[in-house]
């Protein structure tokens, strides 16, 4: 999750399914999580980032995939699309809530609240209540 000084959040529209999501991806076998964040954001958006902190852990209970979300700040670069993205945009928190599915929007909103790291489960579309 990349947040600018004005509070806008970096998002991409995925090339494969047209949904708005956070930039991100799968870590290389020998890659530290923070290095993977830096690489994936740059590959998908053209933006260089500095990693601040882990803000959440999110498990897709259907697919068995665990996503780590780190809050980052931009440190250079220019927005550009890639083979994985058809649009790159800096969205307000309200725009995030409007454009993204619940399971992606909550990751950005969790990162902004300063009470993390959050640990949440979901079914790929909706959060599953803890307990």
Structure description:
This protein is an alpha+beta fold and 131 residues long. The protein contains three helices and seven strands; from the N terminus they run E-E-H-E-E-E-H-H-E-E. It has helices at 33-45, 93-99, 102-113, and strands spanning 9-14, 20-21, 47-60, 65-77, 85-91, 118-122, 127-128. Strands 4-3-6-7 form a four-stranded mixed beta sheet. It has a three-stranded antiparallel beta sheet with strand order 2-1-5. Helix 2 (93-99) runs antiparallel to helix 3 (102-113). The longest helix has 13 residues, at 33-45. The radius of gyration is 14 Å and the shape is globular. It starts with 8 loop residues before the first strand and ends with a strand. The model has no long low-confidence stretch (mean pLDDT 93).
Provide key terms for this protein:
single chain, 131 residues, three-stranded antiparallel sheet, 3 helices, 24% helix, hydrolase, NUDIX_hydrolase_CS
